[in-house]
Design a protein that fits this description.
Elements lengths: L1 E2 L5 E4 L5 E7 L6 E6 L3 E3 L3 E8 L5 E8 L5 E9 L11 H7 L1 H15 L3 H20 L8 H11 L9 H5 L4 H6 L7 H34 L12
Antiparallel strand pairs: 1-8, 2-3, 3-4, 4-6, 5-6, 6-7, 7-8
Helix pairs in contact: 1-2, 2-3, 3-4
The structure holds zinc ion.
Protein name: DUF4145 domain-containing protein
Amino acid sequence: MQSVEDRYVQSRFSNTFPRTVELTCPHCLKVAVLEARSWQEHGHEVAASEMTCSRCEGSVLFIQLLTPEATVRENGLYCYPGSARREAMPGVNYLQSLSGPLARTYDSALKLYNTADWGASALMVRHLLQGLVIQLLGETHRDQPLARQLEALPGELDLSRPLQDVAQLLEPAGTFGRQFDDEAAIDKVSADLLMELAEQLMTYLVVMPGTMEDLKKRIATAPVPLRRGSDVA
Ligand SMILES: [Zn+2]
């Protein structure tokens, strides 16, 4: 079940249940209006409706959470299968802090993707990668091809920076090191911070390399599209 923000609801029935919702249809992958004929309440906490895509007539199940008064709960709308829309990655605010223009390029790439304009979206991603490496490397590598710029990144950037200072926190005299001496005194706030620290480290050391390997395998085995105009044997 995927959450559907209220801003995608275009119109409502008089009892405020969603009547039309705009989303990227999971069947035809186009931005489309899905329309409900009716809603059925199940118990006192949810109502369900099967909405139909105005473009391909594919159906999507919608679930609406209800308040104790049986009215529509704010931001309580979910759908299955989920919208084919790509949302911005978590942490996109850090990209915004690094560079407003880069964040806008990423936003444009997402918008093109979400209108199924695959070619334009891919070109925008290339533009984004070029902008990103120049932002990180500086002007010295500006005239190199993108592949060379990417190769230069590990030599130019201090990739160990996220790991620095973490060791100090865990030393016996460090913030967490001291707390380990008296585990009964560790409260939820400290436990949350320590858990988050471990998760960030695992993301950097284990998850990111693992997902990158998987992605490279998928790229290696993805079917290569035939060039337009080439002979089909
Ligand atoms: Zn559709």
